[in-house]
Write a structure and sequence with these properties.
The protein has about 350 residues and is α/β, with parallel strands linked by helices. The chain folds into two domains: about 1-160 and about 340-360, Glycogen Phosphorylase B (Rossmann fold, 3-Layer(aba) Sandwich), CATH 3.40.50.2000; about 170-340, Rossmann fold, CATH 3.40.50.2000. It is about 45% helix and about 15% strand. The chain has a six-stranded parallel β-sheet, sandwiched between helices. Strands 1-4-5-6-7 form a five-stranded parallel β-sheet, with helices on both faces. Helix 7 (about 200-210) packs parallel to helix 8 and helix 7 (about 200-210) crosses helix 12 (about 310-320). The longest helix is centred in the last third of the chain and has 17 residues, at about 345-360. It is elongated and about 70 Å long.
Length: about 350
């Protein structure tokens, strides 16, 4: 396994696959930034600094280091996660003296950034991965279409399940509800990294539209990230009734206390918060973006265009104002969650892919 700087769903997915393969009797070595070593207890971990932005000198050193490392054990398969890790591994595995053909699998976890140099660099990485990888796995169908357009030969969709979480106790749920709002207040909950992709600025703009609604729901945001101060300033300027909880380890209990879960992302693959909300049977309002519709289906969420604050506000209020709609969404969420792939399905799919590229 090769990964770059990773957090959230990507990091969780790599850790799950590595642990599952090791539990199945396969020898697993993980190459990645030193700070990710904690994700792989009991496994062989080798530091290889693959950053989140291009630095040609450092990147060349990383590619050469990866090549030396991979020339030693001669793994049967290398699985890189993310385009930066995939490009580094693809260059490191170029045929040459002392390095036999080693098939490369790359999982693409994210969509390209907005216009600018970063997007141009992303397209270059897509092109390189498409030509160097024996197989490309994508977490959303729009990513699979992009990689086919770049010339990738073997492209598939891959499940990225959320790890099971213990059911919160009655005491935990009561404490979470007390934290979220005063008695009788309706709660709109959002959770995730406070970064542009997650669309929380759109959610706050939507909340500004419902401040005169009677009753006025309280917006609760759990998470941390680079936009923390900007979002707090936006909330203050708009007079939004809301709470910032910071990073939380009790998301299942928070979900149980929410009347609506909002996922306003500009793009997502298979977001863990959507899967967690479905498992919790919570009414869900989310962006019709990336892999979200594939998770929710047609009935388990109210889907709105990404970036549309008016549509988001209207959808949230429609659920809060209509108990019958909320009940239908809750039932559909539980039904949908029961059919989502689990960890064992994801591990089996990865192992089948490794076998296929090894045999080709």
């Amino acid at each position: 396994m090769v990964l770059a700087t990773a957090a959230g769903g990507t990091a969780s997915h790599v850790a799950m696959l590595a642990a599952g393969c090791a539990a199945g009797g396969h020898q697993v070595t993980v190459y990645g930034p030193a700070q990710t070593a904690r994700l792989f207890p009991g496994m062989t971990f080798v530091a290889a600094e693959i950053g989140d932005r291009p630095r040609p000198g450092r990147d060349l050193v990383t590619v050469l280091r990866l090549r030396r490392l991979l020339a030693g054990p001669h793994p049967e398969v290398v699985h890189a996660h993310g385009l930066r890790a995939g490009a580094a591994a693809g260059l490191a595995l170029l045929p040459g003296p002392g390095l036999p053909r080693i098939p490369l699998v790359v999982t693409v976890h994210n969509a390209p950034p907005g216009p600018g140099w970063a997007r141009a660099g992303y397209i270059l990485l897509e092109w390189l991965v498409a030509r160097r990888a024996a197989a490309v796995a994508c977490v959303a169908r729009d990513l699979a279409d992009r990689m086919r357009g770049r010339g990738a030969r073997d492209v598939s969709w891959v499940p990225v399940p959320a790890r099971p979480a213990p059911q919160p106790t009655a005491e935990e749920m009561a404490a979470a509800r007390a934290l979220l709002a005063a008695d009788g207040q309706q709660v709109v909950l959002a959770a995730g990294r406070l970064a542009p992709q997650k669309g929380f600025a759109t959610l706050l703009a939507a909340a500004a539209r419902w401040q005169n609604h009677d009753p006025c729901p309280v917006l609760v945001l759990a998470g941390q990230g680079p936009l923390d101060q900007a979002l707090r300033a936006q909330a203050d300027a708009s007079g939004i009734r809301m709470r910032f909880l910071g990073q939380r380890a009790d998301v299942p209990a928070l979900l149980a206390g929410a009347d609506v879960v909002a996922v306003p992302s500009a793009w997502e693959g298979q977001p863990l918060i959507v899967q967690e909300a479905l498992r919790a049977g919570r009414p869900l309002v989310a962006s019709r973006a990336g892999g979200i519709p594939d998770l929710t289906g047609a009935d388990a969420a109210v889907l709105v265009p990404p970036g549309d604050a008016a549509a988001l506000a209207g959808a949230v209020l429609s659920v809060l104002d209509d108990p019958a709609l909320a009940a239908r969404l809750s039932a559909a969420a539980l039904s949908r969650a029961a059919g989502l792939p689990g960890e064992q399905a994801a591990i089996a799919a990865a192992l089948a892919l490794y076998q296929r590229v090894s045999d080709s």
